[in-house]
């Protein structure tokens, strides 16, 4: 990067204005997809379907997030203005249409049209906006912050994680104060707000002036050619451990609310949810920034998996979820597990683009990162769904303070997550090779 670009005070060459701020505007908007649990029951009640039926909208959103990132990665690579505009339009239009189909469902209770419309709007259209919006600023950030790539990507991805903590109380307030039909009104109002935020981000986002993407097709190797510059098992290891980290995170996070109630902290669910969201965002920024100081960024994943295994094992051995109520030590262990998994879940996201750039270079990083995000797509269909299946088909449902819960079922989810965490650690230690940089160090 030229010295003039680094030192110029003009907004057109300012890395915060052209990379960091637009990344936050984009990610703080699309990150609200994780607020689903705030309004999912309200949607189900308003349109006359079960919560289980509406839950698929969130699963589809995460699936199409990953798949759109995988298939549109080349568009992001070539033209971030086109990709960020696609993200802005798809996300805001998808949110507005979700509001419309919720309204329709309220007028025609039990109509399949409303449910399918929500699947298409929230799941597919918003999902495409999520994938392109998530991917668009990442390479740009790493180009502007070449010495602190982890800090840069962590900052943006932290915005994605922090969006839930910021938007949840706002959404809750809107649901309480917008009166009859507040659920669909909220979606339409927020669609307008997020369109403005994302469009400003789209206008500001720009790569450094001295970075020129190769235009000749022969000048740029294909994605597979880039991946094959290392043993193919190296990339497989990165993809699978990324998938496992997301799957385990979603499995626990999807049951977090009920786990907190099981240990007798029902009155503090909102506070604990906010704290866990802060850990999620903090893990995204903290782990990736820490990785900038390490010889091998893969060390971060080893730490995430080891910590997750240790605290999952402690809660399993002590039966913390089913025996935690009234026991301070067990409550501490359960909360520590929730917070550590949230931090590791977030840290896994922020570290993957920089780990990939260390292994495969910056030339095709958007496309490679996009393909890797397909792991998120499949994790979105498996993590919370498998956890729900385990809870519904094991243990015993009891009523506690008017709430039905299954403490043994939630405890059994940990058998699933610890097995996967162990597999991920083995892959991390054996398949993902040290980079050339770490070998030289």
Structural features:
Growth Hormone, Chain: A, two-stranded antiparallel ribbon, 19 helices, 1% strand
As for the CATH topology of the largest domain, it is: Growth Hormone, Chain: A
Instruction: Please tally the β strands and state the result.
Output: 2
Q: If strands are numbered along the chain, what order do they take across the biggest sheet?
A: 1-2
CATH architecture of the largest domain: Up-down Bundle
> What value does the Rg take, in angstroms?
22 Å
Domain count:
2
Give the CATH H-level superfamily of the largest domain.
Answer: MFS general substrate transporter like domains
The secondary-structure element order is HHHHHHHHHHHHHHHHHEEHH
The average pLDDT score comes to 88
Largest sheet data = 2 strands, antiparallel
What portion of residues is helical?
Answer: over 70%
What is the CATH domain class of the largest domain? Mainly Alpha
């Amino acid at each position: 990067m030229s010295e003039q670009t680094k030192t110029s005070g003009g907004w057109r060459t300012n890395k915060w204005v052209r990379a960091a701020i637009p990344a936050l505007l984009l990610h703080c908007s699309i990150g609200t997809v994780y607020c689903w649990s705030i309004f999912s029951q309200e949607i189900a009640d308003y349109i006359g379907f079960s919560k289980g039926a509406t839950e698929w909208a969130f699963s589809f959103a995460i699936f199409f997030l990953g798949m759109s990132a995988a298939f549109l990665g080349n568009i992001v690579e070539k033209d971030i203005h086109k990709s960020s505009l696609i993200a802005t339009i798809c996300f805001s239009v998808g949110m507005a249409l979700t509001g419309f189909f919720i309204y329709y469902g309220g007028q025609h209770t039990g109509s399949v049209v409303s449910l399918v419309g929500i699947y298409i709007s929230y799941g597919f259209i918003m999902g495409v906006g999520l994938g392109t919006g998530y991917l668009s600023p990442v390479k740009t950030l790493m180009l502007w912050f070449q010495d602190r790539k982890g800090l840069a990507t962590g900052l943006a991805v932290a915005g994605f994680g922090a969006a839930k903590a910021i938007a949840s109380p706002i959404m809750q307030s809107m649901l309480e104060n917008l009166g009859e039909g507040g659920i669909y009104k909220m979606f339409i109002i927020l669609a307008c707000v997020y369109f403005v935020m994302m469009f400003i981000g789209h206008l500001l986002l720009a790569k450094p002036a001295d970075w020129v993407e190769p235009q000749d097709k022969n000048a740029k190797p294909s994605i597979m050619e880039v991946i094959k510059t290392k043993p193919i098992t190296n990339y497989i290891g990165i993809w699978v451990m990324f998938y496992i980290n997301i799957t385990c995170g979603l499995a626990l996070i999807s049951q977090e609310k009920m786990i907190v109630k099981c240990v007798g902290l029902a009155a503090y669910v909102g506070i604990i949810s906010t704290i866990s969201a802060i850990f999620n965002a903090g893990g995204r920024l903290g782990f990736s920034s820490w990785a900038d100081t390490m010889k091998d960024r893969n060390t971060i994943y080893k730490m995430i998996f080891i910590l997750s295994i240790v605290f999952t094992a402690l809660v399993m051995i002590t039966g913390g979820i089913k025996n935690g109520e009234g026991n301070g030590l067990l409550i501490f262990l359960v909360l520590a597990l929730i917070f550590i998994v949230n931090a590791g879940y977030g840290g896994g996201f922020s570290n993957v683009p920089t780990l990939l750039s260390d292994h495969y270079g910056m030339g095709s990083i958007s496309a490679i990162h996009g393909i890797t995000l397909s792991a998120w797509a499949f994790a979105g269909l498996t993590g919370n769904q498998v956890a729900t299946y385990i809870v519904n088909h094991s243990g015993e449902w009891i009523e506690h303070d008017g709430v039905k819960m299954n403490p043994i079922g939630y405890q059994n989810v940990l058998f699933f997550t610890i097995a996967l965490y162990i597999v991920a650690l083995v892959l991390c230690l054996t398949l993902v090779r040290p980079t050339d940089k770490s070998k030289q160090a």
